[in-house]
Every structure is written in C-alpha cells, then in structure tokens.
C-alpha cells in the first residue's frame, strides 16, 4: 500500500514538499472541500470560490498526469465538513501505510493535526513548507543572532543570502531602500492601466453557482469574478503586472484614488498564498525587468522588499510567536467593530471607498488596509480579535500567518511593537495628502473641531491622549506628544469630547453578528 498525501487549499503547488516523492502507482492524493474552512470565519464569497476553483483545477491537472486523486466535493452527501473527519473517511477507503502533509499556514490547523495520528492510527509525516525563502529554523537563528528583530535588517540579510538585487556584497544602486521615492500622489492626468481579469470556465462556473447557493449570506459580491484559478492564468497575471504595472509600482505604491481599485499593484497575493505562483519566481521576474531596463530600481526594489522582506518577516514572526502572539492586547483596545465595516454605510468617504473595493473584489491594496480601515480601527480602539476576524474574512489573500501579524502587529500595535516600532496612527492630513477621497467627503480634513471636522483628526489626538502610558516613552512618538502637550487643556478636552460622541454614535450601530449583506 502507498501513502495518502493530503493537499490543502493553500498548498496548490506542483512542487509542494508533500508531493515531492509521489509514487503515482501506489499513492493517493487527497483533497477535500469542507464547509468548516469556509465558515470558521465567514469568508468573502470570492475568496471561497477562488480557493475551491483553484483546488478543482489543481486536482484535474494532477489526474491528467496519471496521479490518483481522491477529491471530496462540498456537495458530497457523506461529507463530514472537517479536515479530520474527511481524513478518517479517506483512510477507511484507501487503507494507506501512512499520511504525508505539508505544514499548514495556520496555527489553528496545525493544532488539528496533533490529533490525526491517534484519530487514524497512522503515522502523519508533516513536512516543511519550503515555498518560502526563509525557513522557520533559519528565521529563529537570525532573530537570535541579531537581537534586533526589525524587518529592515531581516530584509537586508535576505538580500545578501539570496543575492537578489545585489552587486557583490553591496545593494544594487548603492542603497537598500528607495522608500523616499515611493510616496508620490497620483497625478491628475495619469490613468492606471486596465487590469487583466480571467473569464470563469465551466469548472469555475460550477463553483460560483455552488458558492452563491451555499454562502449567499457571506460578505461581498460573488460576481464579476475575475481571479485566475490555474497556474497558466496566474502566470499570465504575473506577465501583465511586470509589463504594464511594475514600472510605476514604486512611484505610486502609497497612493490612493477614488474608484481606482488596483492602481499599479500586483494583485498577486492570492496566487502567492494559495500556491499558484512562487515567491522566488515573482521576485526573479521583477529583478529581470530591472536588469533588462524595463523597470526602474525604485520599482523593482519596492516590490521585492514587500515579498522578500515583509512577507517572509511576518511569516517568521507568526511561527516564532504563536500562540501567545494572538492573545496580547498592548493598548487594551476593547471597542466592538462598528457594523459599517460590513455594510460600508458610513459618511467617511475614505472608509466607504475602501470597504466598497473590498466588497467588490475581496481586495484592497496595502495603504487602504493600513492607513484607512486599519488606521480607523487603531484610533477607535477596536478589540483586536474583532478586527482580525474582519481582515481574515474579507480578503482573498488572507490566511492567518500573514493576516494576523499585519493586523495585530502592524495596524493595532497589540503586540507592543514586536513587528513595527511605532503605531501607524495618522490624522486626516495623511489621507488627504495620499488620496483624492477627501474631495467630496462630507467632512473637512483640515477642520479639527466642529460638525465638519474629519473624524480621523479628533480620533488621532484622542488616541494619543488615551495611550500616553503605553506610547509616550517611545522616541518615535516624541514629536506627536510634544504637539499634543503644546495644545491648551480645553482644546484637548474638546477633542476628546468630539471623539467620545462620535464613537458612541457608531456604537449605536454595533451588532455582534455581521448583518447579512449580499
Ligand atoms: P502589491 O502591492 O503588489 O505587493 C506585492 C506583494 O508583496 C503582495 O502580493 C504580497 O505578497 C507582498 N506583500 C506586500 N505587503 C505585505 C505585507 N505587509 N505582508 C505580507 N506580504 C506583503 N497580505 C496578504 O497576503 N494576506 C493578508 O491577509 C494580508 N492582510 C493585511 C492586513 C493589513 C491590515 C495590512 C496593512 C496588510 C495586509 N497584507 C496582507 C499585506 C498587503 O496589504 C497585501 O499583501 C497586498 O495588498 C496584496 O495586494 P498585491 O498583490 O496587489 O500587493
Ligand atoms: C480558505 C479555504 C476554504 C474556504 N475552503 C477550503 C477547503 O474546502 N478545503 C481546503 O483544503 N482548504 C480550504 N481553504 C483553505 C484552508 O483554510 C487553508 O488550507 C488552511 O487555512 C491552511 O492552514
Ligand atoms: Fe476620510 Fe476625513 Fe478625508 Fe473624509 S475628510 S475622506 S473622513 S480623511
């Protein structure tokens, strides 16, 4: 008898470690569609459709290679709808000698796996996920040796180790970081390129119909559905990004524009995270574009930093710090998530815009996530688990290993600065500088007090007032605290008053269950 090889929905890479020594004559590949994975948080409809359609195509390709694939569909009447239940049923069907799986992307699923040997009576071999540049062990060593666990040092070390964008021992262009060139506002006359989207084939169509019927009450629009769900289409998406978007990616990396959902961003994270593209090939393509003169260095470096730097760093932190990481709440934030995160029903135009693009595409770009919906959650003091659940549910690229450090650490500062040295708190001036959202907003980004004052302004100062104990010793917060302290006491009181009234008005709309929204 052969081995049973379980392939999860974010393991869709042909060179996955769990498939490396596959014996097509004896082994069985198991793939299971289970409702528990769609419902543990109520994922966006497009996210469920993307994963299930990509799983079905991946299984078809393996079968076409002559591999025996046991594929359990969501509508199988005997489906137990959990990974553990489906594994037990498959063991009964095939009687394998042992089980092989690649380590999962989520702590939650890693915990499930502890029960599998006793549940099945078989050896469960959990292999390393080697699709990352930096292994978990390597990360631990790096952090231990460096003491300072900051992204920038990790990234430089990864550049040296991989040789990506290096000239011998020195960084290409003589500097590691071109961030200062990468903060331009989008000029009025510049229209971002139309984006390549993919028409669903019959397999994907069937999944879309099933998701519409079963998960119709989840957040988000199901259609139009334009994501790639096969490796060739994901590669076509990568080609399109490198040719049409990468050259200006750096310049407008931090820009936001009303009704422009994608700008020059990659739209590649769902493919990287579920396995259709590899981090290595994506970085290699960006580097080649630079070396061929097709993209400037600030673009290629800015893009590679996100993947070789941030993506690898947050994964390292996640596995080094879980499970305690998720439980910290450095700023003691406890407010309920306002209902408008699910409905988009708010007069703050920036928030309404970012929630609308999220609903339309299961996507928002980094600055929308960090400086709009994230910034609001930080300033309003939303309870970390509630805002984490929102991010995990609504984005097609969201898996715990990458979502949690970004939200818990980078946005909410709930980890006390393990990930970022200071909170990215900002007032309306930042959003006004980097976007055109404020034009046509009912609030005035320049007004600090009064009925038209931008809520981000009084929420910002109130956040500083309320978190003085946790933040005022941070040298990077010295300037904001000096500005706060220079304000007359009655102005500070008026600001805090505005914030309290505003937040109470939102609380009237809070509902512990997200309202159904089609
Ligand atoms: P691009 O702007 O084109 O960037 C290129 C690639 O870099 C992305 O595809 C992604 O793989 C990687 N990347 C960029 N920034 C980060 C980052 N901070 N952490 C990890 N990888 C990064 N990314 C996810 O993949 N899944 C998530 O669940 C997720 N949640 C986030 C939550 C918050 C609050 C914030 C601030 C960021 C989050 N990110 C997450 C990071 C980032 O916003 C997305 O990776 C990015 O918007 C994906 O779109 P893109 O492919 O167009 O990215
Ligand atoms: C996100 C997701 C969904 C919605 N459905 C499935 C599924 O039916 N089967 C599956 O194998 N994976 C699914 N996934 C992705 C898993 O949640 C993902 O593999 C784990 O979170 C990784 O630990
Ligand atoms: Fe957002 Fe304030 Fe600008 Fe309105 S004025 S769009 S609330 S930053």
UniProtKB/TrEMBL annotation:
Residue ranges of the region described as Disordered: 172-198
Domain of life, source organism: Bacteria
Parts of the chain that traverse the membrane: none
InterPro entries membership: Crypto/Photolyase_FAD-like_sf (IPR036134), PhrB-like (IPR007357), Rossmann-like_a/b/a_fold (IPR014729), UV-DNA_repair_photolyase (IPR052551)
Protein name, as recorded: Cryptochrome/photolyase family protein
Organism: Paracoccus spongiarum
């Amino acid at each position: 008898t052969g081995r049973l090889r379980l392939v999860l929905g974010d393991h869709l890479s042909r060179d996955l470690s769990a498939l490396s020594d596959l014996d097509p004559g004896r082994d069985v590949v198991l793939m299971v569609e289970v409702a528990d994975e769609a419902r543990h948080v109520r994922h966006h409809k497009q996210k469920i459709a993307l994963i299930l359609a990509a799983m079905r195509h991946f299984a078809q390709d393996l079968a076409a290679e002559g591999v025996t694939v046991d594929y359990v569909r969501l509508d199988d009447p005997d489906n137990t709808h959990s990974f553990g239940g489906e594994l037990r049923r498959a063991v009964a069907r095939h009687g394998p000698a042992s089980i092989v799986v690649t380590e999962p992307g989520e702590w939650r699923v890693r915990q499930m796996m502890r029960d599998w040997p006793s549940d099945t009576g078989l050896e469960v071999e959990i292999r390393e996920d080697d699709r990352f540049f930096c292994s978990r062990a390597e990360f631990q060593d790096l952090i231990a040796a460096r003491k300072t666990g900051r992204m920038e040092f990790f990234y430089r070390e990864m550049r040296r180790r991989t040789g990506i964008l290096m000239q011998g021992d020195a960084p290409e262009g003589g500097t590691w970081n071109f961030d200062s060139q990468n903060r331009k506002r989008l000029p009025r006359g510049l229209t971002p390129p139309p984006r390549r989207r993919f028409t669903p084939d019959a397999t994907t169509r069937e999944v879309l119909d099933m998701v519409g019927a079963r998960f119709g009450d989840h957040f988000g629009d199901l259609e139009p559905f334009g994501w790639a769900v096969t490796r060739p289409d994901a590669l076509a998406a990568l080609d399109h990004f490198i040719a049409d978007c990468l050259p200006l990616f750096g310049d407008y990396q931090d820009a936001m524009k009303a009704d422009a959902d994608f700008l020059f961003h990659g739209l590649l994270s769902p493919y990287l995270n579920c396995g259709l593209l590899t981090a290595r090939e994506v970085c290699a393509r960006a580097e080649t574009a630079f070396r061929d003169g097709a993209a400037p260095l600030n673009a290629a470096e800015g893009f590679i930093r996100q993947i070789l730097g941030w993506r690898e760093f947050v994964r390292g932190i996640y596995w080094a710090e879980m499970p305690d990481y998720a439980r910290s709440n450095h700023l003691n934030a406890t407010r309920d998530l306002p209902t408008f995160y699910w409905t988009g029903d708010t007069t703050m135009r920036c928030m309404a815009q970012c929630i609308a693009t999220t609903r339309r595409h299961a996507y928002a770009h980094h600055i929308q996530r960090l400086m709009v919906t994230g910034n609001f959650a930080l300033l309003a003091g939303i309870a970390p688990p509630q805002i984490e659940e929102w991010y995990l549910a609504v984005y097609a690229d969201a898996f715990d290993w990458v979502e949690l450090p970004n939200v818990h650490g980078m946005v909410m500062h709930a980890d006390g600065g393990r990930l970022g040295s200071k909170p990215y708190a900002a007032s309306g001036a930042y959003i006004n500088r980097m976007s055109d959202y404020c034009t046509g907003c009912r609030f005035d980004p320049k007004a600090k007090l009064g009925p038209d004052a931008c809520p981000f302004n009084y929420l910002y100062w109130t956040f500083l007032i309320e978190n003085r104990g946790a933040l005022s010793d941070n040298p990077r917060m010295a300037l904001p605290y000096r500005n706060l302290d220079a304000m007359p006491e009655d102005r500070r009181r008026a600001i805090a008053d505005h914030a309290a009234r505003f937040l109470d008005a939102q609380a009237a709309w809070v509902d512990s269950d997200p309202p159904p929204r089609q």
